[in-house]
């Protein structure tokens, strides 16, 4: 694992020592090279895990997320070039260093083999994210958003620390790889129920569960482009990853503890997607669509069948790439129109036809067009929830319909129709932006050819 | 022997060549539409070889290649099913599309993005081919969704127009409701039969297929615009005419019926689903035929007639005759595409005038279009020995002799007679009588692209039914004996419809309603269905999402319960508990008192 971690650390001196005009290109290139190294972990020769050391390991669940994380850093760098073009050099370098630091923490979080180590890094990712949101956000509301972001996640995860200490006390170890063999079924008692809640709530808030999701739209809307991308693509997946890791410890309590959370998620995904129907703010729409997609992941993880785990993993990767791409597109609109309001950007297809093609493809992947991996993920989730209870198909069906509706509503409002006069003299789309969209779409298309590698531990 | 599969694959690969070409310089070429048309025609000719072989020897085949993935015990691979249905349908669809492509070279010649239009048309066709030849449900679903998305792009081709965008969104929305049924069926098959392969589904038995079949019926309802999910089909007329022709003839709308035909082995013993299908089809065919009676837009009339014919196909499936339904799909493709192309020709000639009240007397200026339109309409009504006769007459006969739901069958008969009525109406108002269009328009139909494409379909509309029904072996035994009055019913109701419509149309010359009657309103407002469903449902759901989901829950309750209330209570309690209240005077006073006191005490002590 050090062969990813050390190059990532070395990116920081690279940033600070590069010549002023080379900071972006250097970091992007080296970031891409690092992401190529992480692809090796996708090859999991045995069913078990690849143990790199006592502290780090990767298995077929963490490897795709790891690849996603490393893939996203160069994309974030590419996306934020315009946003930072007016900043002084030191701040640019500081910004890049923050992104690199975040990536470093994320890599270590996904590969940590010790629960307490995982916990520390999980919390550590908050710091660079908070700085990115509150320092480089566009409006004053960013401070409020940062506050929401920090307090929601901290409130959720502090009980986890207590729970971990308790588990360490009676298990003697917190190593993922070992405790899954040592674990005894938890007896049904009030204290164990609280243990379950303490373990799960941290990740539920991070996902986020409906009801605890308020921080997400705020953070997404206020964050600069790189912040939105990494939040949607990777940070939310920390929740799903953590839940999948920790539910092995909590059996058989999950069987009945899951009910309220399943209900909340199933209800919440419809609520949030219907909120999307009434959004006028483009970034907020994408943020709410993330909440609705993540509700599917929560449902899948709580059902706890091999099929649902496959669905959850596939959906996490698919959604990571898709939502990040949508944020990039929203940002490219924002840089031209200087507003996030959708109606002001209507008719862009006439002016930027290639960008319209990217919009179309991104919307189609968002509504899970076959054979994209989004569909594979959603299909598995729907299948497992259908087998859990036949009635859920009604809720899932409503959600599928509304998802299609708001994705196309977003497409039609921003791209179709007559263009308005204030956008007549906008800049054409840059090669950088087109390359950025291609780099988002390419993995999506290639993974559709061989979705096996992102289906997680069991296939 | 190997010719069979290799020719079929060649035909399919040829279709994809122009798509691959679109990344090269050729895409910028003005000849690109021509390439696409030629590719389609070659694909048609090559696909005829395996079809001939199939007709000759009756061999069927499943091609399985490229293992995609294995999930637990389910193997998913790319596989094509070359059986009766796909082998007959592929050449028909290719032939019809070939003509439509040629027609759109004429119709769309002034469009600046004509190359992209052709690419979309071809993609539309390819997705339909994927759907028809798919051997597993996943592949079928790829085609199924692909058709839906391509229709979205094509209906919304003139994206500057709000109406076009609304119609496109409507099409996707109604289809998406159907897709839920499809996904449910997929989930059910995966859970209970552990497979998505069609042949494995058919050999596995299960006691109760109600649930997945209901899902499939819902899917077919959405795609084939059956009652309840039908309003998108007439709205789809906002797209360019070639798109309507393609959408209504051989792609998209027949996909739903085709799906039910594909899954017929499961349906044939399930009385519940059959009855549902029968009633659904009957309601659709009558309602849409009634709606077609009073429309004035020529494309809308033809669109409603498609909807009515789709209802008839569903009725046929409901009376357990899938092969007849399939035959009707094939024959219907020819004359329906031609009817649309004829109306396209008229619309284009009259400077985009679609209202039949402003036409009239076109038989003098557009003789060829008139001929084709009349033949197409006659074929549609099932005039003996034209294409429509061979399927429609059989359908009505087997409906008359079956002993299921008599009401549904009666409704179907009424709709059949109405078919004749609205066809008469088009002919009467558009073609006959005095011209009512502007005299300044230069009318010219002598373009080889237009003439040839319509001519080809004209020949198809006359002979295709005979050729298809006589060269394929009969798979279900038609009813051989019946009383002569039953035999003549189909013809009798059609002629009745013709005569009545003609008389009524003639009376309109002299007499006029002072005010429209309620029946007229019902028909011209499409049975009030869009008025109710397109206002009430969106309004309530959007209001709920705004008021309750967005404002009440998100902005008020969730915001107040956790963050706001915590900060409020923190603030209150901290002010309550804290000693520091900013009372500077008091603090100083107490400070001074202490100082004085201590000084006094110390002094006194000293």
Automatic annotation (TrEMBL), chain A:
GO CC terms in record: mitochondrial membrane
Membrane topology value: Multi-pass membrane protein
Alphabetized PANTHER family for the sequence: NADH-UBIQUINONE OXIDOREDUCTASE CHAIN 4 (PTHR43507)
Lineage of the species this protein comes from: Eukaryota, Metazoa, Chordata, Craniata, Vertebrata
Location of the NADH:ubiquinone oxidoreductase chain 4 N-terminal domain: 1-109
Family as reported in the entry's similarity comment: Belongs to the complex I subunit 4 family.
InterPro entries referenced in this protein's UniProt entry, alphabetically: NADH4_N (IPR000260), NADH_Q_OxRdtase_chainM/4 (IPR010227), NADH_UbQ_OxRdtase (IPR003918), ND/Mrp_TM (IPR001750)
Localization, UniProt: Mitochondrion membrane
E.C. number: 7.1.1.2
Catalytic activity, reaction form: a ubiquinone + NADH + 5 H(+)(in) = a ubiquinol + NAD(+) + 4 H(+)(out)
Name of the protein: NADH-ubiquinone oxidoreductase chain 4
Residues of the NADH:quinone oxidoreductase/Mrp antiporter transmembrane domain: 112-401
Keywords: Electron transport, Membrane, Mitochondrion, NAD, Respiratory chain, Translocase, Transmembrane, Transmembrane helix, Transport, Ubiquinone
GO biological process: ATP synthesis coupled electron transport
Function: Core subunit of the mitochondrial membrane respiratory chain NADH dehydrogenase (Complex I) which catalyzes electron transfer from NADH through the respiratory chain, using ubiquinone as an electron acceptor. Essential for the catalytic activity and assembly of complex I.
Chain ranges passing through the membrane: 21-42, 54-73, 94-110, 116-133, 145-167, 193-216, 223-244, 256-277, 284-303, 309-330, 351-369, 389-413
Signal peptide: none
Domain of life: Eukaryota
GO molecular function: NADH dehydrogenase (ubiquinone) activity
Main location: mitochondrion
Automatic annotation (TrEMBL), chain B:
Domain spans labelled NADH-Ubiquinone oxidoreductase (complex I) chain 5 N-terminal: 68-118
Keyword Calcium found: no
Subcellular location: Mitochondrion inner membrane
Gene Ontology biological process terms from the UniProt entry: ATP synthesis coupled electron transport
Transmembrane feature ranges: 6-27, 39-58, 84-105, 117-134, 140-160, 172-191, 245-263, 275-294, 362-386, 406-432, 453-472, 484-502, 586-605
Stretches assigned to the NADH:quinone oxidoreductase/Mrp antiporter transmembrane domain: 134-418
Protein's UniProt keywords contain Cytoplasm: no
Superkingdom to which the source organism belongs: Eukaryota
Record's bilayer topology term: Multi-pass membrane protein
EC number(s) per entry: 7.1.1.2
Record domain NADH dehydrogenase subunit 5 C-terminal: where: 422-601
Keywords in alphabetical order: Electron transport, Membrane, Mitochondrion, Mitochondrion inner membrane, NAD, Respiratory chain, Translocase, Transmembrane, Transmembrane helix, Transport, Ubiquinone
Catalytic activity: a ubiquinone + NADH + 5 H(+)(in) = a ubiquinol + NAD(+) + 4 H(+)(out)
Entry coiled-coil feature ranges: none
Example GO molecular function: NADH dehydrogenase (ubiquinone) activity
Pfam families the record matches: NADH5_C (PF06455), Proton_antipo_M (PF00361), Proton_antipo_N (PF00662)
GO cellular component: mitochondrial inner membrane
Stated role: Core subunit of the mitochondrial membrane respiratory chain NADH dehydrogenase (Complex I) which catalyzes electron transfer from NADH through the respiratory chain, using ubiquinone as an electron acceptor. Essential for the catalytic activity and assembly of complex I.
Family in the record: Belongs to the complex I subunit 5 family.
Name used for this protein in its record: NADH-ubiquinone oxidoreductase chain 5
Lineage: Eukaryota, Metazoa, Chordata, Craniata, Vertebrata
Gene name of the record: ND5
């Amino acid at each position: 694992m050090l062969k990813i971690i050390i190059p990532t650390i070395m990116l920081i001196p690279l940033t600070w020592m590069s010549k002023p005009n080379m900071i972006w290109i250097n970091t992007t290139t080296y970031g891409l090279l690092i992401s190529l190294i992480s692809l090796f972990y996708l090859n999991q020769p045995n069913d078990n895990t690849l143990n790199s050391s006592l502290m780090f390991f990767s298995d077929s669940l963490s490897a795709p997320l790891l690849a996603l994380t490393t893939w996203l850093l160069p994309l974030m760098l590419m996306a934020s070039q315009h946003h930072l073009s007016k900043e002084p050099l030191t701040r640019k370098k500081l910004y890049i260093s923050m992104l690199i630091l975040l990536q470093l923490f994320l890599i270590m979080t996904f590969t940590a083999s010790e629960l307490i180590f995982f916990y520390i890094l999980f919390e550590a990712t908050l710091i660079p994210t908070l700085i990115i949101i509150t320092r480089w956000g566009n409006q004053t509301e960013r401070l409020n958003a940062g506050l929401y972001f920090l307090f929601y996640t901290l409130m959720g995860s502090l009980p986890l620390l207590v729970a971990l200490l308790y588990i360490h006390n009676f298990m003697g170890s917190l190593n993922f790889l070992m405790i899954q063999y040592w674990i005894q079924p938890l007896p049904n008692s009030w204290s164990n129920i609280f243990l379950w809640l303490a373990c799960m709530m941290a990740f539920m808030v991070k996902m986020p569960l409906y009801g605890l999701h308020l921080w997400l739209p705020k953070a997404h809307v206020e964050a600069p482009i790189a912040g939105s991308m990494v939040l949607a693509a990777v940070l939310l997946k920390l929740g799903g990853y953590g839940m999948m890791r920790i539910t092995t410890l909590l059996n058989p309590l999950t069987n009945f503890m899951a009910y309220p959370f399943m209900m909340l998620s199933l209800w919440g995904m419809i609520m949030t997607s219907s909120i999307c129907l009434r959004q006028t703010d483009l970034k907020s729409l994408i943020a709410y669509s993330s909440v609705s997609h993540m509700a599917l992941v929560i449902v899948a993880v709580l059902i706890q069948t091999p099929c649902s785990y496959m669905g959850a993993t596939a959906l996490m990767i698919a959604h990571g790439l898709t939502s990040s791409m949508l944020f990039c597109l929203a940002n490219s609109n924002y840089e031209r129109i200087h507003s996030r309001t959708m109606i002001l950007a209507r008719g862009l297809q006439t002016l930027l036809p290639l960008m319209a093609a990217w919009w179309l493809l991104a919307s189609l992947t968002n509504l899970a067009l076959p054979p994209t991996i989004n569909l594979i993920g959603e299909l598995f989730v729907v299948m497992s929830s259908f087998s859990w209870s036949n009635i859920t198909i009604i809720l899932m069906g409503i959600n599928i319909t509304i998802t299609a509706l708001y994705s196309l509503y977003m497409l039609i409002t921003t791209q179709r129709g007559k263009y308005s006069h204030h956008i007549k003299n906008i800049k054409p789309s840059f090669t950088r932006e087109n390359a950025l969209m291609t780099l988002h779409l390419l993995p999506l298309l290639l993974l559709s050819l061989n979705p096996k590698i992102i289906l997680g531990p069991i296939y | 022997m190997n010719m069979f599969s290799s020719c079929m694959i060649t035909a399919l690969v040829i279709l994809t060549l122009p798509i691959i070409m679109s990344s090269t310089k050729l895409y910028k070429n003005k000849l690109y539409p021509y390439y696409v048309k030629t590719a389609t025609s070659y694909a048609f000719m090559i696909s005829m070889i395996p079809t001939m072989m199939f007709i000759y020897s009756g061999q069927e085949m499943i091609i399985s290649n490229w293992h995609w993935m294995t999930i637990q015990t389910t193997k998913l691979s790319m596989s094509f099913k070359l059986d009766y249905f796909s082998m007959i349908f592929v050449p028909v669809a290719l032939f019809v599309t070939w003509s439509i492509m040629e027609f759109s070279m004429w119709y769309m010649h002034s469009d600046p993005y004509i190359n992209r239009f052709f690419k979309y048309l071809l993609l539309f066709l390819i997705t339909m081919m994927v759907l028809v030849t798919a051997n597993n449900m996943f592949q079928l679903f790829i085609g199924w969704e692909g058709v839906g998305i391509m229709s979205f792009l094509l209906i919304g081709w003139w994206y500057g127009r709000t109406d076009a965008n609304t119609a496109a969104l409507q099409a996707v929305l109604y289809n998406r409701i159907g897709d839920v049924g499809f996904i449910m069926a997929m989930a059910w098959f995966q859970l209970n039969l552990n497979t998505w392969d069609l042949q494995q589904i058919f050999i596995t038995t299960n006691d109760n297929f109600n649930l997945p079949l209901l899902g499939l019926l819902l899917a077919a309802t959405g795609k084939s615009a059956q009652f309840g999910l039908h309003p998108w089909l007439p709205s789809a007329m906002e797209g360019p005419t070639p798109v309507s022709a393609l959408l209504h003839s051989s792609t998209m709308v027949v996909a739903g019926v085709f799906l039910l035909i594909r899954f017929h082995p499961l349906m044939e013993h399930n009385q519940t689903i059959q009855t549902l299908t029968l009633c659904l089809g009957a309601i659709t065919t009558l309602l849409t035929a009634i709606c077609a009676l009073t429309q004035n837009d020529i494309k809308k009339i033809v669109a409603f007639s498609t909807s009515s014919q789709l209802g008839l196909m569903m009725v046929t499936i409901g009376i357990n005759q899938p092969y007849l339904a399939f035959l009707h799909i094939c024959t219907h493709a020819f004359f329906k595409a031609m009817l649309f192309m004829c109306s396209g020709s008229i619309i284009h000639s009259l400077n985009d005038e679609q209202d039949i009240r402003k036409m009239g007397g076109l038989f003098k200026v557009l003789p060829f279009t008139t001929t084709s339109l009349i033949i197409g309409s006659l074929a549609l009504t099932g005039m003996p020995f034209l294409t429509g006769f061979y399927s429609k007459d059989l359908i009505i006969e087997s409906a008359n002799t079956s002993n299921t739901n008599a009401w549904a069958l009666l409704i179907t008969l009424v709709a059949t007679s109405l078919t004749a009525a609205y066809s008469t109406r088009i002919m009467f108002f558009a073609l006959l009588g005095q011209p009512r269009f502007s005299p300044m328009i230069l009318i010219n139909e002598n373009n080889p692209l237009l003439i040839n494409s319509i001519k080809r379909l004209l020949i198809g509309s006359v002979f295709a039914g005979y050729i298809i029904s006589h060269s394929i072996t009969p798979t279900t035994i038609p009813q051989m004996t019946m009383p002569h009055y039953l035999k003549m019913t189909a013809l009798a109701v059609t002629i009745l419809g013709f005569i009545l419509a003609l008389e009524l149309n003639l009376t309109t010359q002299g007499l006029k309603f002072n005010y429209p009657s309620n029946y007229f309103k019902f028909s011209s407002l499409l049975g009030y269905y869009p008025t109710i469903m397109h206002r009430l449902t969106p309004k309530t759901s959007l209001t709920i999402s705004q008021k309750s989901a967005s404002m009440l829950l998100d902005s008020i309750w969730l915001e107040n319960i956790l963050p706001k209330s915590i900060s409020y209570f923190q603030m209150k309690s901290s002010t309550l508990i804290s000693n520091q209240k900013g009372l500077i005077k008091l603090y100083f006073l107490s400070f001074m008192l202490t100082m004085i006191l201590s000084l006094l005490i110390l002094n006194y002590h000293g």
